[in-house]
Predict the structure.
Amino acid sequence: MTEPAARPADPIADFASHVLDVVDAIPPGRVMSYGDIAEYLAEGPGPRQVGRVLAVYGSAVPWWRVIHSDGTPAPGHDEAALSRYLDEGTPLRSARPPVRVDMRRARWTAAP
DNA sequence: ATAATGACGTCGG
DNA sequence: TCCGACGCCATTA
């Protein structure tokens, strides 16, 4: 091999990859919280890092299906998110600011 | 190396 | 219901 050294495993990139994969698997009309995803991956550093991944790579996945544990969408994107929710028929507890998804009904578990 | 920041979550007032 | 304080942890200044 002409590689200078074994490619250093990038735990961060690996984590990000898994996060994006999970988000992409959330069906329309359903949502997961940052904490849910962190818990599902179970080896991730925590919910905040899930948020970081979405802040950077979120444009490539259905980011509006990832919200806070209290049902409120990502800060600064509540307007765009609401539009998606209405379109997907996501159960809402409040369709007017503060926009809130009905977590009890909309919460999705990354079922295999 | 220490401090501040951030697409979080939980608790107390 | 709304807001602030803490704890958490990678990234940035």
